[in-house]
Amino acid sequence: xxxxxxxxxxxxxxxxxxxxxxxxxxxxxxxxxxxxxxxxxxxxxxxxxxxxxxxxxxxxxxxxxxxxxxxxxxxxxxxxxxxxxxxxxxxxxxxxxxxxxxxxxxxxxxxxxxxxxxxxxxxxxxxxxxxxxxxxxxxxxxxxxx
Amino acid sequence: xxxxxxxxxxxxxxxxxxxxxxxxxxxxxxxxxxxxxxxxxxxxxxxxxxxxxxxxxxxxxxxxxxxxxxxxxxxxxxxxxxxxxxxxxxxxxxxxxxxxxxxxxxxxxxxxxxxxxxxxxxxxxxxxxxxxxxxxxxxxxxxxxxxxxxxxxxxxxxxxxxxxxxxxxxxxxxxxxxxxxxxxxxxxxxxxxxxxxxxxxxxxxxxxxxxxxxxxxxxxxxxxxxxxxxxxxxxxxxxxxxxxxxxxxxxxxxxxxxxxxxxxxxxxxxxxxxxxxxxxxxxxxxxxxxxxxxxxxxxxxxxxxxxxxxxxxxxxxxxxxxxxxxxxxxxxxxxxxxxxxxxxxxxxxxxxxxxxxxxxxxxxxxxxxxxxxxxxxxxxxxxxxxxxxxxxxxxxxxxxxxxxxxxxxxxxxxxxxxxxxxxx
Lengths: 146, 424
Prior knowledge:
The structure holds two protein chains of two kinds. Chain A is built from six helices and six strands, in the order E-H-E-E-H-H-H-E-H-E-E-H. Chain A is α+β, with helices and mostly antiparallel strands. Chain A has a four-stranded mixed beta sheet. A two-stranded antiparallel sheet of chain A has the order 2-3. The two termini of chain A are 13 Å apart. Chain B is an all-alpha fold. Chain B is built from 23 helices and no strands. Chain B has helices at 3-20, 25-38, 44-50, 53-70, 74-84, 90-107, 110-128, 133-148, 155-164, 168-174, 176-193, 195-198, 206-210, 221-240, 248-263, 267-272, 276-294, 297-308, 313-327, 333-351, 356-368, 378-389, 396-423. In chain B, helix 1 (3-20) packs antiparallel against helix 17 (276-294). The chains are: A alpha+beta, B mainly alpha. The A-B interface holds A 59-61, 63-73, 75-76 and B 70, 73, 76, 80, 116, 118-120, 122-123, 126-127, 208, 211-217, 219, 386, 389-391.
Protein backbone atom coordinates (compact mmCIF):
# COMPACT_ATOMS: atom_id res chain seq x y z
CA UNK A 1 0.00 0.00 0.00
CA UNK A 2 1.28 3.45 -0.93
CA UNK A 3 1.15 6.61 1.16
CA UNK A 4 -1.40 8.23 -1.18
CA UNK A 5 -3.97 5.70 0.03
CA UNK A 6 -3.27 6.48 3.69
CA UNK A 7 -2.68 10.25 3.73
CA UNK A 8 -5.14 13.03 4.50
CA UNK A 9 -5.65 14.60 1.04
CA UNK A 10 -6.31 18.23 0.00
CA UNK A 11 -5.06 19.68 3.18
CA UNK A 12 -5.13 23.38 3.99
CA UNK A 13 -1.77 25.05 3.65
CA UNK A 14 -0.48 28.53 4.42
CA UNK A 15 1.91 30.91 2.68
CA UNK A 16 5.11 32.26 4.20
CA UNK A 17 3.45 35.65 4.59
CA UNK A 18 0.44 34.41 6.59
CA UNK A 19 0.41 35.99 10.08
CA UNK A 20 0.93 33.58 12.97
CA UNK A 21 -2.44 34.58 14.43
CA UNK A 22 -4.14 33.22 11.27
CA UNK A 23 -2.13 29.97 11.45
CA UNK A 24 -3.15 29.38 15.06
CA UNK A 25 -6.80 29.94 14.08
CA UNK A 26 -6.62 27.39 11.26
CA UNK A 27 -4.80 24.90 13.46
CA UNK A 28 -7.38 25.08 16.22
CA UNK A 29 -10.31 24.93 13.79
CA UNK A 30 -8.93 21.93 11.93
CA UNK A 31 -7.32 20.35 15.00
CA UNK A 32 -3.96 20.08 13.28
CA UNK A 33 -0.57 20.02 15.03
CA UNK A 34 1.11 21.65 12.04
CA UNK A 35 0.55 23.09 8.58
CA UNK A 36 2.63 22.89 5.39
CA UNK A 37 3.91 26.22 4.05
CA UNK A 38 3.74 26.49 0.25
CA UNK A 39 4.68 29.04 -2.43
CA UNK A 40 2.35 30.24 -5.24
CA UNK A 41 2.95 27.02 -7.21
CA UNK A 42 2.00 24.79 -4.26
CA UNK A 43 5.66 23.76 -3.77
CA UNK A 44 6.33 22.87 -0.13
CA UNK A 45 8.85 25.38 1.25
CA UNK A 46 8.47 24.72 4.96
CA UNK A 47 6.33 23.58 7.82
CA UNK A 48 4.95 25.41 10.85
CA UNK A 49 4.00 23.43 13.91
CA UNK A 50 2.36 24.06 17.28
CA UNK A 51 5.68 23.54 18.95
CA UNK A 52 7.40 26.19 16.75
CA UNK A 53 4.73 28.64 17.85
CA UNK A 54 4.84 27.68 21.53
CA UNK A 55 8.62 28.00 21.50
CA UNK A 56 8.38 31.48 19.97
CA UNK A 57 5.75 32.50 22.52
CA UNK A 58 7.98 31.72 25.47
CA UNK A 59 10.29 34.49 26.66
CA UNK A 60 13.91 33.73 25.68
CA UNK A 61 15.11 33.11 29.21
CA UNK A 62 12.70 30.18 29.74
CA UNK A 63 14.94 27.92 27.69
CA UNK A 64 17.94 28.89 29.82
CA UNK A 65 16.26 28.34 33.19
CA UNK A 66 16.90 25.11 35.03
CA UNK A 67 13.32 25.21 36.30
CA UNK A 68 10.84 28.06 35.75
CA UNK A 69 8.42 26.99 38.50
CA UNK A 70 9.15 30.08 40.62
CA UNK A 71 7.57 32.35 37.99
CA UNK A 72 4.04 33.00 39.23
CA UNK A 73 1.84 33.88 36.26
CA UNK A 74 1.19 33.75 32.56
CA UNK A 75 2.04 37.45 31.93
CA UNK A 76 5.30 37.00 30.09
CA UNK A 77 3.88 34.25 27.89
CA UNK A 78 0.85 36.27 26.81
CA UNK A 79 2.94 39.40 26.21
CA UNK A 80 5.33 37.49 23.99
CA UNK A 81 2.45 35.68 22.20
CA UNK A 82 0.83 39.03 21.42
CA UNK A 83 4.16 40.29 20.08
CA UNK A 84 4.47 37.47 17.57
CA UNK A 85 0.76 37.31 16.57
CA UNK A 86 1.13 39.59 13.57
CA UNK A 87 4.53 38.35 12.43
CA UNK A 88 4.66 36.20 9.27
CA UNK A 89 5.05 32.42 9.26
CA UNK A 90 8.46 32.72 7.56
CA UNK A 91 10.00 34.01 10.82
CA UNK A 92 9.19 30.80 12.70
CA UNK A 93 8.73 27.98 10.16
CA UNK A 94 11.15 25.10 9.73
CA UNK A 95 12.61 25.22 6.25
CA UNK A 96 14.50 21.93 6.41
CA UNK A 97 11.36 19.93 5.67
CA UNK A 98 11.12 16.18 5.48
CA UNK A 99 8.45 15.27 2.94
CA UNK A 100 7.39 11.98 1.36
CA UNK A 101 6.45 11.27 -2.26
CA UNK A 102 2.90 9.92 -2.58
CA UNK A 103 4.30 6.62 -3.94
CA UNK A 104 6.52 5.98 -0.92
CA UNK A 105 5.84 2.71 0.91
CA UNK A 106 4.24 2.80 4.35
CA UNK A 107 7.29 1.19 5.95
CA UNK A 108 9.60 3.89 4.65
CA UNK A 109 7.23 6.65 5.76
CA UNK A 110 6.75 5.10 9.21
CA UNK A 111 10.52 4.79 9.56
CA UNK A 112 10.94 8.51 8.73
CA UNK A 113 8.24 9.59 11.22
CA UNK A 114 9.74 7.43 13.95
CA UNK A 115 13.41 8.26 13.46
CA UNK A 116 12.94 12.01 13.08
CA UNK A 117 10.22 12.23 15.76
CA UNK A 118 7.85 13.92 13.28
CA UNK A 119 4.19 14.45 14.10
CA UNK A 120 3.28 15.64 10.65
CA UNK A 121 4.90 15.30 7.25
CA UNK A 122 3.80 16.81 3.89
CA UNK A 123 3.03 14.36 1.07
CA UNK A 124 4.13 15.63 -2.37
CA UNK A 125 3.85 14.79 -6.05
CA UNK A 126 6.91 16.20 -7.84
CA UNK A 127 7.46 18.67 -4.99
CA UNK A 128 3.86 19.93 -4.97
CA UNK A 129 1.66 19.43 -1.91
CA UNK A 130 -1.04 16.75 -2.24
CA UNK A 131 -1.72 15.90 1.39
CA UNK A 132 -0.24 15.28 4.81
CA UNK A 133 0.69 12.20 6.76
CA UNK A 134 0.61 11.78 10.55
CA UNK A 135 1.55 8.79 12.71
CA UNK A 136 -2.14 8.21 13.45
CA UNK A 137 -2.99 7.91 9.71
CA UNK A 138 -0.54 5.03 9.49
CA UNK A 139 -1.73 3.35 12.70
CA UNK A 140 -5.40 3.71 11.79
CA UNK A 141 -4.92 1.99 8.43
CA UNK A 142 -2.68 -0.69 9.85
CA UNK A 143 -5.26 -1.57 12.52
CA UNK A 144 -8.23 -1.53 10.16
CA UNK A 145 -6.79 -3.47 7.22
CA UNK A 146 -7.65 -7.15 6.84
CA UNK B 1 66.34 18.51 14.84
CA UNK B 2 67.25 18.25 18.49
CA UNK B 3 64.76 17.29 21.16
CA UNK B 4 64.69 20.72 22.80
CA UNK B 5 63.60 22.39 19.59
CA UNK B 6 60.95 19.73 18.91
CA UNK B 7 59.63 20.06 22.46
CA UNK B 8 59.51 23.84 22.16
CA UNK B 9 57.58 23.62 18.89
CA UNK B 10 55.03 21.15 20.33
CA UNK B 11 54.64 23.28 23.46
CA UNK B 12 54.12 26.60 21.67
CA UNK B 13 51.83 25.05 19.04
CA UNK B 14 49.74 23.48 21.81
CA UNK B 15 49.44 26.79 23.69
CA UNK B 16 48.49 28.72 20.55
CA UNK B 17 45.87 26.21 19.41
CA UNK B 18 44.38 25.88 22.90
CA UNK B 19 43.93 29.65 23.01
CA UNK B 20 42.54 29.95 19.48
CA UNK B 21 39.76 27.45 20.32
CA UNK B 22 39.32 26.60 16.63
CA UNK B 23 39.93 22.93 17.41
CA UNK B 24 38.71 21.40 20.67
CA UNK B 25 41.25 22.24 23.38
CA UNK B 26 41.22 18.75 24.86
CA UNK B 27 42.07 17.19 21.52
CA UNK B 28 44.97 19.66 21.16
CA UNK B 29 46.33 18.97 24.65
CA UNK B 30 46.10 15.20 24.16
CA UNK B 31 47.75 15.47 20.73
CA UNK B 32 50.61 17.48 22.22
CA UNK B 33 50.97 14.92 25.03
CA UNK B 34 50.97 11.98 22.62
CA UNK B 35 53.57 13.62 20.38
CA UNK B 36 55.91 13.83 23.36
CA UNK B 37 55.49 10.09 23.91
CA UNK B 38 55.54 9.03 20.25
CA UNK B 39 58.68 11.10 19.59
CA UNK B 40 60.24 9.42 22.64
CA UNK B 41 60.91 12.65 24.52
CA UNK B 42 58.93 11.06 27.37
CA UNK B 43 58.20 7.40 27.85
CA UNK B 44 54.70 6.32 28.81
CA UNK B 45 55.72 5.74 32.42
CA UNK B 46 57.10 9.28 32.76
CA UNK B 47 54.01 10.69 31.08
CA UNK B 48 51.64 8.94 33.46
CA UNK B 49 53.71 10.02 36.46
CA UNK B 50 53.39 13.63 35.31
CA UNK B 51 49.60 13.62 35.71
CA UNK B 52 48.70 15.32 38.98
CA UNK B 53 45.95 13.05 40.23
CA UNK B 54 45.39 15.29 43.23
CA UNK B 55 44.14 17.98 40.84
CA UNK B 56 42.15 15.50 38.73
CA UNK B 57 40.58 13.89 41.83
CA UNK B 58 39.64 17.22 43.40
CA UNK B 59 38.02 18.37 40.14
CA UNK B 60 36.14 15.10 39.69
CA UNK B 61 34.88 15.03 43.28
CA UNK B 62 33.63 18.60 43.07
CA UNK B 63 31.98 17.99 39.68
CA UNK B 64 30.04 15.02 41.05
CA UNK B 65 28.94 16.86 44.17
CA UNK B 66 27.91 20.01 42.29
CA UNK B 67 26.00 18.02 39.66
CA UNK B 68 23.88 16.51 42.44
CA UNK B 69 23.36 19.72 44.45
CA UNK B 70 22.45 21.58 41.25
CA UNK B 71 19.35 19.39 40.89
CA UNK B 72 17.94 20.53 44.22
CA UNK B 73 17.22 24.08 42.99
CA UNK B 74 19.17 25.54 45.94
CA UNK B 75 21.16 27.98 43.82
CA UNK B 76 18.05 29.34 42.08
CA UNK B 77 16.44 29.75 45.50
CA UNK B 78 19.41 31.75 46.81
CA UNK B 79 19.60 33.96 43.71
CA UNK B 80 15.90 34.89 43.85
CA UNK B 81 15.92 35.38 47.61
CA UNK B 82 18.88 37.76 47.52
CA UNK B 83 17.58 39.65 44.45
CA UNK B 84 14.42 40.53 46.33
CA UNK B 85 16.53 42.52 48.80
CA UNK B 86 17.08 45.10 46.04
CA UNK B 87 13.50 46.40 46.42
CA UNK B 88 13.27 48.03 43.03
CA UNK B 89 16.70 49.65 42.94
CA UNK B 90 18.74 48.51 39.92
CA UNK B 91 22.08 49.28 41.52
CA UNK B 92 21.18 47.20 44.60
CA UNK B 93 20.08 44.42 42.27
CA UNK B 94 23.45 44.60 40.50
CA UNK B 95 25.21 44.64 43.88
CA UNK B 96 23.37 41.66 45.39
CA UNK B 97 23.52 39.53 42.25
CA UNK B 98 27.26 40.20 41.87
CA UNK B 99 27.94 39.33 45.51
CA UNK B 100 25.95 36.07 45.41
CA UNK B 101 27.64 35.13 42.13
CA UNK B 102 31.07 35.76 43.65
CA UNK B 103 30.26 33.76 46.78
CA UNK B 104 28.78 30.84 44.83
CA UNK B 105 31.69 30.80 42.42
CA UNK B 106 34.12 30.49 45.33
CA UNK B 107 32.65 27.05 46.01
CA UNK B 108 31.37 26.10 42.53
CA UNK B 109 33.19 26.31 39.25
CA UNK B 110 32.69 29.61 37.43
CA UNK B 111 30.84 28.19 34.42
CA UNK B 112 28.26 26.37 36.58
CA UNK B 113 27.74 29.56 38.58
CA UNK B 114 27.10 31.58 35.42
CA UNK B 115 24.74 28.95 33.96
CA UNK B 116 22.70 29.05 37.18
CA UNK B 117 22.65 32.79 37.88
CA UNK B 118 22.36 34.38 34.44
CA UNK B 119 18.95 32.89 33.49
CA UNK B 120 17.45 34.15 36.78
CA UNK B 121 18.92 37.56 36.01
CA UNK B 122 17.33 37.45 32.54
CA UNK B 123 13.95 36.57 34.05
CA UNK B 124 14.19 39.49 36.49
CA UNK B 125 15.35 41.95 33.82
CA UNK B 126 12.64 40.95 31.37
CA UNK B 127 9.99 41.50 34.03
CA UNK B 128 11.50 44.89 34.85
CA UNK B 129 11.90 45.67 31.13
CA UNK B 130 15.55 46.65 31.55
CA UNK B 131 18.72 45.53 29.73
CA UNK B 132 20.37 42.52 31.41
CA UNK B 133 23.79 43.41 29.97
CA UNK B 134 25.30 45.38 32.91
CA UNK B 135 24.12 42.76 35.40
CA UNK B 136 25.29 39.75 33.41
CA UNK B 137 28.71 41.30 32.72
CA UNK B 138 29.08 42.12 36.40
CA UNK B 139 28.19 38.51 37.24
CA UNK B 140 30.84 37.24 34.83
CA UNK B 141 33.48 39.47 36.48
CA UNK B 142 32.23 38.44 39.93
CA UNK B 143 32.53 34.75 39.04
CA UNK B 144 36.19 35.20 38.11
CA UNK B 145 36.88 37.25 41.24
CA UNK B 146 34.98 34.85 43.53
CA UNK B 147 36.86 31.91 42.06
CA UNK B 148 40.12 33.46 43.28
CA UNK B 149 39.03 33.23 46.91
CA UNK B 150 39.31 29.50 47.61
CA UNK B 151 41.25 26.37 46.74
CA UNK B 152 38.21 24.96 44.92
CA UNK B 153 36.99 28.17 43.28
CA UNK B 154 38.99 28.17 40.06
CA UNK B 155 41.20 25.55 38.33
CA UNK B 156 44.45 27.60 38.68
CA UNK B 157 43.98 27.50 42.46
CA UNK B 158 43.45 23.73 42.43
CA UNK B 159 46.68 23.33 40.43
CA UNK B 160 48.61 25.75 42.67
CA UNK B 161 47.25 24.22 45.89
CA UNK B 162 48.29 20.77 44.81
CA UNK B 163 51.71 21.79 43.48
CA UNK B 164 52.67 24.03 46.39
CA UNK B 165 50.97 21.99 49.14
CA UNK B 166 48.79 24.92 50.09
CA UNK B 167 45.69 23.98 52.04
CA UNK B 168 42.08 25.10 51.78
CA UNK B 169 42.64 27.36 54.81
CA UNK B 170 45.83 28.84 53.31
CA UNK B 171 43.69 30.12 50.44
CA UNK B 172 40.96 31.34 52.79
CA UNK B 173 43.46 33.23 54.94
CA UNK B 174 45.59 34.64 52.15
CA UNK B 175 43.25 35.23 49.22
CA UNK B 176 39.63 35.26 50.42
CA UNK B 177 39.74 38.60 52.32
CA UNK B 178 41.28 40.35 49.33
CA UNK B 179 38.88 38.69 46.86
CA UNK B 180 36.00 39.86 49.05
CA UNK B 181 37.24 43.46 48.87
CA UNK B 182 37.43 43.22 45.06
CA UNK B 183 33.99 41.65 44.94
CA UNK B 184 32.46 44.50 46.95
CA UNK B 185 34.20 47.14 44.81
CA UNK B 186 33.14 45.50 41.52
CA UNK B 187 29.45 46.54 41.44
CA UNK B 188 30.42 50.15 42.19
CA UNK B 189 32.72 50.17 39.18
CA UNK B 190 30.17 48.49 36.90
CA UNK B 191 27.48 50.81 38.26
CA UNK B 192 29.60 53.85 37.34
CA UNK B 193 30.29 52.44 33.89
CA UNK B 194 26.55 51.93 33.28
CA UNK B 195 25.40 55.02 35.16
CA UNK B 196 22.45 55.65 32.81
CA UNK B 197 21.10 52.09 33.11
CA UNK B 198 21.35 52.26 36.92
CA UNK B 199 19.12 55.31 37.16
CA UNK B 200 16.04 53.75 35.50
CA UNK B 201 12.96 53.65 37.67
CA UNK B 202 11.57 50.14 38.05
CA UNK B 203 9.61 50.59 41.26
CA UNK B 204 6.29 49.74 39.60
CA UNK B 205 7.48 46.69 37.70
CA UNK B 206 9.21 45.41 40.84
CA UNK B 207 5.88 43.99 42.02
CA UNK B 208 6.32 41.26 39.39
CA UNK B 209 9.70 40.26 40.81
CA UNK B 210 8.24 40.27 44.31
CA UNK B 211 5.80 37.65 43.06
CA UNK B 212 8.61 35.22 42.18
CA UNK B 213 8.25 32.34 44.58
CA UNK B 214 11.74 31.11 45.44
CA UNK B 215 10.35 28.23 47.51
CA UNK B 216 8.98 26.68 44.34
CA UNK B 217 12.51 26.56 42.93
CA UNK B 218 13.38 23.85 45.46
CA UNK B 219 12.69 20.74 43.45
CA UNK B 220 13.66 18.04 45.89
CA UNK B 221 13.69 19.07 49.58
CA UNK B 222 14.94 15.70 50.82
CA UNK B 223 17.84 15.66 48.40
CA UNK B 224 18.51 19.27 49.37
CA UNK B 225 18.88 18.32 53.05
CA UNK B 226 21.19 15.41 52.24
CA UNK B 227 23.27 17.51 49.83
CA UNK B 228 23.62 20.40 52.25
CA UNK B 229 24.68 18.02 55.00
CA UNK B 230 27.38 16.42 52.85
CA UNK B 231 28.50 19.72 51.36
CA UNK B 232 28.89 21.40 54.76
CA UNK B 233 30.66 18.33 56.09
CA UNK B 234 33.03 18.38 53.12
CA UNK B 235 33.80 22.09 53.58
CA UNK B 236 34.42 21.46 57.31
CA UNK B 237 36.86 18.67 56.50
CA UNK B 238 38.51 20.94 53.90
CA UNK B 239 39.18 23.47 56.67
CA UNK B 240 41.26 20.92 58.57
CA UNK B 241 42.45 18.69 55.74
CA UNK B 242 46.15 19.42 56.20
CA UNK B 243 45.96 18.86 59.97
CA UNK B 244 44.13 15.60 59.32
CA UNK B 245 46.79 14.55 56.83
CA UNK B 246 44.25 14.32 54.00
CA UNK B 247 44.91 15.54 50.47
CA UNK B 248 42.27 17.80 48.89
CA UNK B 249 41.31 15.15 46.30
CA UNK B 250 40.59 12.64 49.07
CA UNK B 251 38.23 15.09 50.76
CA UNK B 252 36.36 15.95 47.53
CA UNK B 253 36.09 12.34 46.39
CA UNK B 254 34.96 11.25 49.87
CA UNK B 255 32.26 13.93 49.81
CA UNK B 256 31.14 12.87 46.33
CA UNK B 257 31.02 9.19 47.27
CA UNK B 258 29.12 9.87 50.50
CA UNK B 259 26.58 11.97 48.62
CA UNK B 260 26.13 9.23 46.00
CA UNK B 261 25.73 6.73 48.81
CA UNK B 262 23.01 8.58 50.74
CA UNK B 263 21.20 10.20 47.78
CA UNK B 264 20.62 6.92 46.01
CA UNK B 265 21.20 8.61 42.66
CA UNK B 266 22.47 6.36 39.88
CA UNK B 267 26.21 7.12 39.53
CA UNK B 268 26.01 6.48 35.78
CA UNK B 269 23.62 9.43 35.52
CA UNK B 270 25.85 11.67 37.63
CA UNK B 271 29.03 10.69 35.80
CA UNK B 272 27.43 11.82 32.54
CA UNK B 273 27.60 15.33 33.97
CA UNK B 274 31.28 15.11 34.91
CA UNK B 275 33.22 17.20 32.42
CA UNK B 276 35.49 14.46 31.14
CA UNK B 277 36.69 16.73 28.39
CA UNK B 278 38.06 19.21 30.97
CA UNK B 279 39.71 16.40 32.96
CA UNK B 280 41.46 15.05 29.87
CA UNK B 281 42.49 18.58 28.97
CA UNK B 282 44.34 18.74 32.30
CA UNK B 283 45.85 15.30 31.74
CA UNK B 284 47.15 16.31 28.30
CA UNK B 285 48.63 19.54 29.62
CA UNK B 286 50.38 17.89 32.57
CA UNK B 287 52.14 15.58 30.12
CA UNK B 288 53.03 18.40 27.69
CA UNK B 289 54.62 20.41 30.51
CA UNK B 290 56.52 17.34 31.75
CA UNK B 291 57.98 16.98 28.25
CA UNK B 292 59.03 20.62 28.11
CA UNK B 293 60.51 20.30 31.58
CA UNK B 294 62.49 17.19 30.71
CA UNK B 295 64.38 18.82 27.82
CA UNK B 296 65.38 21.73 30.06
CA UNK B 297 63.23 24.54 28.66
CA UNK B 298 61.56 25.20 32.02
CA UNK B 299 64.95 25.35 33.75
CA UNK B 300 66.19 27.80 31.13
CA UNK B 301 63.11 30.01 31.49
CA UNK B 302 63.39 29.95 35.29
CA UNK B 303 67.06 31.03 35.13
CA UNK B 304 66.12 33.87 32.77
CA UNK B 305 63.44 35.07 35.18
CA UNK B 306 65.87 34.93 38.12
CA UNK B 307 68.43 36.94 36.13
CA UNK B 308 65.84 39.50 35.04
CA UNK B 309 64.42 39.99 38.53
CA UNK B 310 67.94 39.91 40.00
CA UNK B 311 66.88 37.30 42.55
CA UNK B 312 64.71 39.88 44.28
CA UNK B 313 61.52 38.44 45.85
CA UNK B 314 59.45 41.62 45.47
CA UNK B 315 60.38 41.99 41.83
CA UNK B 316 59.75 38.29 41.14
CA UNK B 317 56.33 38.37 42.85
CA UNK B 318 55.17 41.49 41.03
CA UNK B 319 56.56 40.22 37.72
CA UNK B 320 54.65 36.92 38.13
CA UNK B 321 51.47 38.83 39.02
CA UNK B 322 51.57 41.20 36.05
CA UNK B 323 52.80 38.69 33.47
CA UNK B 324 50.10 36.26 34.64
CA UNK B 325 47.34 38.87 34.60
CA UNK B 326 48.14 40.12 31.11
CA UNK B 327 48.90 36.66 29.65
CA UNK B 328 45.74 35.12 31.11
CA UNK B 329 43.65 37.90 29.54
CA UNK B 330 44.46 36.25 26.25
CA UNK B 331 45.44 32.63 26.82
CA UNK B 332 43.78 29.89 28.77
CA UNK B 333 44.65 30.20 32.47
CA UNK B 334 44.78 26.44 33.03
CA UNK B 335 47.55 25.84 30.50
CA UNK B 336 49.35 28.94 31.74
CA UNK B 337 49.24 27.87 35.40
CA UNK B 338 50.36 24.32 34.67
CA UNK B 339 53.32 25.80 32.74
CA UNK B 340 54.23 28.22 35.52
CA UNK B 341 54.22 25.68 38.36
CA UNK B 342 57.60 24.04 37.52
CA UNK B 343 59.11 27.45 36.73
CA UNK B 344 58.20 28.74 40.19
CA UNK B 345 59.45 25.53 41.80
CA UNK B 346 62.79 26.05 40.03
CA UNK B 347 62.99 29.68 41.13
CA UNK B 348 62.36 28.53 44.68
CA UNK B 349 65.09 25.90 44.50
CA UNK B 350 67.63 28.34 43.05
CA UNK B 351 66.95 31.28 45.36
CA UNK B 352 65.71 29.79 48.65
CA UNK B 353 62.80 32.29 48.63
CA UNK B 354 59.73 31.77 50.74
CA UNK B 355 57.64 31.09 47.65
CA UNK B 356 54.22 31.79 49.15
CA UNK B 357 53.86 35.38 47.87
CA UNK B 358 54.84 34.15 44.40
CA UNK B 359 52.13 31.46 44.48
CA UNK B 360 49.53 34.02 45.57
CA UNK B 361 50.72 36.30 42.78
CA UNK B 362 50.29 33.47 40.28
CA UNK B 363 46.79 32.72 41.56
CA UNK B 364 45.67 36.36 41.53
CA UNK B 365 47.17 36.99 38.09
CA UNK B 366 45.78 33.81 36.50
CA UNK B 367 42.28 34.15 37.98
CA UNK B 368 41.82 37.92 37.69
CA UNK B 369 43.37 37.98 34.20
CA UNK B 370 40.26 36.07 33.19
CA UNK B 371 38.33 39.36 33.26
CA UNK B 372 40.49 41.06 30.63
CA UNK B 373 38.81 39.81 27.46
CA UNK B 374 35.82 37.64 26.72
CA UNK B 375 38.01 34.84 25.43
CA UNK B 376 40.05 34.73 28.64
CA UNK B 377 37.78 32.46 30.67
CA UNK B 378 35.14 29.85 29.89
CA UNK B 379 32.60 31.62 32.13
CA UNK B 380 32.94 34.77 29.98
CA UNK B 381 32.16 32.89 26.79
CA UNK B 382 29.22 31.06 28.37
CA UNK B 383 27.73 34.29 29.75
CA UNK B 384 28.20 36.21 26.50
CA UNK B 385 26.65 33.32 24.55
CA UNK B 386 23.54 33.26 26.76
CA UNK B 387 23.14 36.99 26.09
CA UNK B 388 23.61 36.36 22.37
CA UNK B 389 20.76 33.84 22.40
CA UNK B 390 18.57 36.63 23.83
CA UNK B 391 19.55 38.87 20.92
CA UNK B 392 22.05 40.91 22.95
CA UNK B 393 25.34 40.82 21.08
CA UNK B 394 28.45 41.64 23.12
CA UNK B 395 31.46 42.10 20.85
CA UNK B 396 35.09 41.56 21.80
CA UNK B 397 35.43 45.36 21.97
CA UNK B 398 32.30 45.82 24.13
CA UNK B 399 33.68 43.35 26.65
CA UNK B 400 37.23 44.69 26.46
CA UNK B 401 36.09 48.28 27.20
CA UNK B 402 34.89 47.31 30.65
CA UNK B 403 36.83 44.06 31.23
CA UNK B 404 40.31 45.49 30.66
CA UNK B 405 39.94 48.35 33.20
CA UNK B 406 38.50 45.88 35.73
CA UNK B 407 41.41 43.51 35.14
CA UNK B 408 44.00 46.32 35.38
CA UNK B 409 42.47 47.84 38.53
CA UNK B 410 42.28 44.43 40.21
CA UNK B 411 45.91 43.67 39.31
CA UNK B 412 47.04 47.10 40.59
CA UNK B 413 45.14 46.48 43.85
CA UNK B 414 46.67 42.98 44.00
CA UNK B 415 50.15 44.51 43.69
CA UNK B 416 49.40 46.81 46.62
CA UNK B 417 47.92 43.93 48.64
CA UNK B 418 50.84 41.57 47.99
CA UNK B 419 53.37 44.30 48.71
CA UNK B 420 51.78 45.42 51.97
CA UNK B 421 51.02 41.95 53.26
CA UNK B 422 54.09 39.93 52.22
CA UNK B 423 56.84 42.09 50.78
CA UNK B 424 57.26 45.23 52.87
